Amino acid sequence: QLFDLSRELYSRFVTLGDHANKLGTAITRTVGAYNQFASSLESRVLVTARKLQAVDGSKIIAQVGMLDAEKTNIRELTAPEVTQ
């Protein structure tokens, strides 16, 4: 019985390890996608929004809410339109 339980526990640890690997891959891809989003927002979208705001004088971006994110490996938004 001890041998059978040990084998079952080992099998479950293997499954748990597979889940941990998949989770790690998904988190890495999520962080990468967020970093691409943040980069595009700050280097493309907000640059054009500032130009548009200067042309017609209207308030294009009143407020952009911050995402509550961990600092580790996640690009922090630094553009004034987003941080103020």
Protein architecture, described:
This protein has helices spanning 2-56, 80-83. The longest helix is centred in the middle third of the chain and has 55 residues, at 2-56. The mean pLDDT is 82. The chain has one domain. By secondary structure, it is an all-alpha fold. The protein is built from 2 helices and no strands.
State the order of secondary-structure elements, H for helix, E for strand.
Answer: HH
Helix content: over 70%
Query: Please, what is the average pLDDT?
Result: 82
Shape: rod-shaped
Rg, alpha carbons: 23 Å
What is the helix tally?
2
Oligomer: single chain
Low-confidence stretches: none
- Total strand count, please? 0
Main β-sheet: number of strands, strand sense, barrel status? Answer: none
**SS-derived structural category:** mainly alpha
Give the percentage of residues in beta strands.
under 5%
Distance between the termini: 64 Å
Count of the domains: 1
In terms of topology, how is this protein built?
Blueprint: H1 2-56, H2 80-83
Which labels suit this protein?
2 helices; 84 residues; mainly alpha
Give a brief description:
The chain contains two helices and no strands. The chain has helices at 2-56, 80-83.
